[in-house]
TrEMBL record:
<dbReference type="GO" id="GO:0000149">
    <property type="term" value="F:SNARE binding"/>
</dbReference>
<protein>
    <recommendedName>
        <fullName>t-SNARE coiled-coil homology domain-containing protein</fullName>
    </recommendedName>
</protein>
<dbReference type="GO" id="GO:0031902">
    <property type="term" value="C:late endosome membrane"/>
</dbReference>
<keyword id="KW-0813">Transport</keyword>
<dbReference type="GO" id="GO:0012507">
    <property type="term" value="C:ER to Golgi transport vesicle membrane"/>
</dbReference>
<keyword id="KW-0812">Transmembrane</keyword>
<feature type="coiled-coil region">
    <location>
        <begin position="31"/>
        <end position="185"/>
    </location>
</feature>
<dbReference type="GO" id="GO:0005789">
    <property type="term" value="C:endoplasmic reticulum membrane"/>
</dbReference>
<dbReference type="GO" id="GO:0005794">
    <property type="term" value="C:Golgi apparatus"/>
</dbReference>
<dbReference type="GO" id="GO:0031201">
    <property type="term" value="C:SNARE complex"/>
</dbReference>
<keyword id="KW-0472">Membrane</keyword>
<keyword id="KW-0653">Protein transport</keyword>
<keyword id="KW-1133">Transmembrane helix</keyword>
<dbReference type="GO" id="GO:0006906">
    <property type="term" value="P:vesicle fusion"/>
</dbReference>
<keyword id="KW-0175">Coiled coil</keyword>
<dbReference type="GO" id="GO:0015031">
    <property type="term" value="P:protein transport"/>
</dbReference>
<dbReference type="GO" id="GO:0005484">
    <property type="term" value="F:SNAP receptor activity"/>
</dbReference>
Length: 232
């Protein structure tokens, strides 16, 4: 069926790519020939990409889940081989760029013999500048270590001050709590005193009323007694 066809097709394309990539490792190959073979490999990768799309389409149409899983696993293996080939192609591109730079430098040196001396001078200046940068970096590292030490001391002092502030805050909260309790006690005491005074006033009024009732009775009793004694 179509699934078997695209399975064979994609596997064949990957094998062809692997064979072509192996040819890129020839050290005696010129830059132009290397470019040509690399271009062939890139075309093969594009064929694999299109074949993979058809492969996945056929996999989705399979009804058997186990069969789907089998072809997906096989596709993952083919992807790994393709990825490895593309990494080798990337190395070939870097090799082409390196050779082109060397060829360009040699050509310029042949056209201008003094250019090599100028390049050496530029290289020396670059190395000198690099040395200065390294020295500056080392000084910065020393300064950074000193800053860390000073910063550590400052952090320790700040922590001590923070602890003192926390203690003062806790004491202030405790004093405020005690003041609130004292205020409540004073208010309760004043309320009780006010209540006691009201009771005392009512007692005095009741006493006066009672005295007002008893005094006339006593006066009347005394008058009756005196009248009785007079009659006798």
């Amino acid at each position: 069926g179509k699934m078997e066809y695209w399975d064979r097709k994609l596997s064949g394309l990957v094998d062809e790519l692997k064979n072509e990539v192996e040819l890129l490792g020839g050290g005696t190959m010129g830059v132009q020939e290397l470019k040509t073979r690399l271009n062939d490999c890139e075309n093969k990768v594009e064929e694999i990409r299109r074949g993979k799309q058809n492969y996945l389409t056929e996999v989705r149409m399979l009804e058997d889940h186990l069969e789907q899983q089998h072809y997906k696993t096989k596709l993952n293996h083919l992807d790994e081989q393709t990825q490895a080939a593309q990494e080798r192609m990337a190395q070939a591109r870097r090799e082409i760029e390196r050779r082109q730079l060397l060829e360009g430098a040699e050509a310029r040196a042949q056209r201008n013999p003094n250019a090599r001396a100028g390049n050496d001078q530029l290289l020396d200046q670059a190395e000198q500048k690099l040395g200065e940068i390294k020295e500056s970096y080392q000084r910065d590292e020393i300064l950074l270590e000193e800053i860390k030490v000073v910063g550590g001391d400052a952090v320790t002092k700040l922590r001590g001050q923070r602890e003192q502030i926390n203690e003062i805050t806790e004491k202030a909260d405790e004093i405020e709590s005690q003041l609130k309790r004292a205020d409540i006690l004073v208010r309760n005491f004043a309320r009780r005193m006010a209540t006691d005074r009201v009771i005392q006033v009512f007692a005095l009024i009741n006493g006066l009323i009672l005295l007002g009732m008893v005094f006339p009775m006593i006066t009347s009793l005394k008058a009756s007694t005196m009248a009785h004694n007079t009659n006798w």
